[in-house]
Amino acid sequence: MPNSHLGWGPRDIMIRLYRMIKSDFWRKIFALFCALLVYYEVSNKSDGVERTIQVPVEIMMPQSYINMTPPSVVNVTLSGRSSFLNEHAQLNKLIMVVEVPELGAYNFREYRIRLQKENLKGLPTFGVQVADIRPSELNISLDKLETRTVEIIANYNAEQELPHEYTVTGVTMLPDKVNISGPESQVKDIKTISTEKIPLNGVTESFEYQAKLRCPEGMTLDRSFTRVRMEIGKEFDTRVMKSVAVRVLKSPATQDDIHVELVTPNVDVTLRAPKTRLALLKNTSIRPYIDISMLQESGVYMTEVYCWQDDETFSVVKIYPARVQIKLTKGK
Fold first, then answer.
1. What phi, psi does 258 have (nearest 5°)?
2. How far apart are CA 310 and CA 102, in angstroms?
């Protein structure tokens, strides 16, 4: 056959390769696969490099549990390719992932987890093996996840920040409650959540403020802010004016025809005013009195005491006694 003889030209070489691959094709594929396995196995151990690193532990918890243990790390010894073990960026991606199962009614306050090679995530498929894990077990503390609703309280310092004579007369928050979630052993003792400090420097008028909430460590809140209405007004106080003389208001027609004897000639008057104004008030600033202009006959009467004031910046809160006894005698 004239075409059966092949030379060594480019076309002849391609024909030879095709015939070689076609002859017993699957056995050659299997041999190639085995050769690749041998290569990877040899490459795994060829460097003989060993290195111990610290790897963080990530604990996957059921939603109803909380891990109370601080973050943990374990020492993992790796061996294999130096190209991987000397690459810090790759080593920093390694992490031990352990999953805690649902424990039901079991007493899970203390739980032991085992660390195995399969828990290490981030290793390449070939070339690096886990030689050792220390410690191989960790004890973790668990607690139940608890959620409760607590009141929000405003945090401010009116005494040191507000101008003289001004004070906080009222605080309104919307919302005034927040849901807090965390370990059952800690959440049960929390009664209120405070806002961050509300500034009052130089304030003389009421205002609204969006206040951030203070979240206790290890807890979560269902909101981060609340709206606060701060009512600002002048600071009032009370003062009792002791033993102020009671005056008698008579009808002009009977001015000289009636004699009045007061069994209780003096009363105590409680006043309310700005603090600085109270300090300046004197007994003469007020005039307690009784009105007998409607009384025409002699006798003993109980009459109500009123109080006249010449300054509208203060108000009369109380007069004691509120009623006094008088003896009225008609005629000179």
1. -130, 135
2. 78
